[in-house]
Amino acid sequence: MQRDKTADSAAIVGRLLLKGKLKLLTPLIIGGGRSLYGDSDIIVLKDEAGRPYIPSSSITGALKHAFEDYQYVGDETNYEENKRWFWGGEYKAEKNGECITYTCQSAMVIADMMFSEDPKALIRLRDGIKIDRRTGTVESSKKFDFEIVEPGIGFNFEMEVIIREAFNSRIFRSIFDWIAVILSSGEFAIGARTGQGFGLCRLEDITAYEFNYETWDHVIAWLSRDASVAKIEYDPAKITLPFQPRFKTFRIEAVFAVKSALMVGSYPGDTQAPDKVHISVQSHDGSGKVAVLPGTSLRGAIRSRAERIVKTLCGDSDVLNNLFGWVDSEKGSTAKPIRGKIRIKEKQIPQNIYLEEIQYRVKIDRFTGGVINNALFDSMPLWAKQNNGPMVTLDLEIKDFEDWEAGLMLLVLKDLWNGDLAIGGEKNVGRGVLQGLSATISFEDRKIELRQKGDNLLLYYPGNNPEWNDSIADLLEGKVASLLKHLEEISNSREEVTTNA
Prior knowledge:
The chain is α+β, with helices and mostly antiparallel strands. The protein folds into two domains: 12-245, no CATH class; 249-500, no CATH class. Helix content is 23%, strand content 34%. It is built from eight helices and 28 strands. The protein has helices at residues 56-67, 79-87, 169-184, 216-223, 295-314, 321-324, 403-417, 470-500; strands spanning 12-24, 70-72, 89-95, 98-104, 108-110, 123-131, 138-149, 154-164, 188-189, 200-212, 231-232, 243-245, 249-258, 261-262, 265-266, 276-278, 280-282, 289-293, 342-344, 347-348, 354-356, 359-364, 371-380, 382-384, 392-399, 434-443, 446-453, 456-460. The strands form eight sheets. Strands 1, 5, 8, 9, 10 and 11 form a six-stranded antiparallel beta sheet that branches. The chain is globular. The termini are far apart.
């Protein structure tokens, strides 16, 4: 079929389709407001049948925001114009010497992602608390809870990109490919509290279609909703993209053994169960419940230690606001919240490496030395099956990091590695003490391996002989030196202000 070449440049000449299953790797929070019954501070967005779903606006906004972190390195001259047509939105242009705001409709459409199975086992309630960083205890009236969608389930994903005559189809295909690559990487997150490890997902079972309306068969196929004619061979892992990240990233992936036991408390709500058990989620493959180390627990412990380090060196923890995020809790405050740069993933603990054993405890009267009446309680923490074997993982990432922030995280890693910083609850009875086994530190196109071998610490580049490398140690020490210099400058500037006042 030959199309009229004199047609308007807005004529549709083709379409790109991407289909698959968006599988949750960590719990998802897509807030739908407060519960009408007062049983949850945040409830998950659900359809009329009570099934959780992901609205198109959530994933579209997250993709558009993530795309801004990449810059185009291709050779097409009209990239900016086509980028605007692809994503849509408002933009400013000058016309007759006057600046005018235009609105451009997006050429991309993503359908609401639905889940068709029984929703009852998919949604769970999670508790949260706010810790007073001065005392290390829970702040009064600062307990909250929220609904999550369990990991391991897949939502139906379908995206359509409209190609018009005025568009550069090569640029549109590049952005289409970028979306497929980023969604299939397992590093993309949607929803709320992504900095604490929630909302990680991965696109699986991918199929792609390319309709060309110059071909009559494709026109008929589209009108009859038969996409098989336009199906193309498509593997995101083999795609080379004309985009590069705008920001450098610092990342630590570390594996630890647990010296005694681990307890991140959850209350089962069953009178026959222990008073407190370790928190669990549905496994990635959907086969059952498995213990998990939440990003919220790790992030809280790391922030607390980072604040202690910074306060010791300069007396002011406000320098961490950009790293961990900040919001003014004062009523009526108009201060703009700050989104943190750090992300700590939630990690599941394989079932074959731990045991759950009940431990009974009593509360002792300090004056008599006897047991207080009605103060018998029990908890069921996790115990490692193998002494000094790998059990928990830390996956920490800082986007657009500064050297002093990397140095601060290296000091926190040192405390975790040496068992000086415990995680989780019941730390007063020895829970949550870790022992470092291995770590991979990545930044500035470098990857460094850190490994404990007996009493020896090995530091080396991957592919080299595992041994201690003084040049790598000096490189990491330079990051810590940047932290000391940064905090010293802050202290000096504060002293100058005080003196002038």
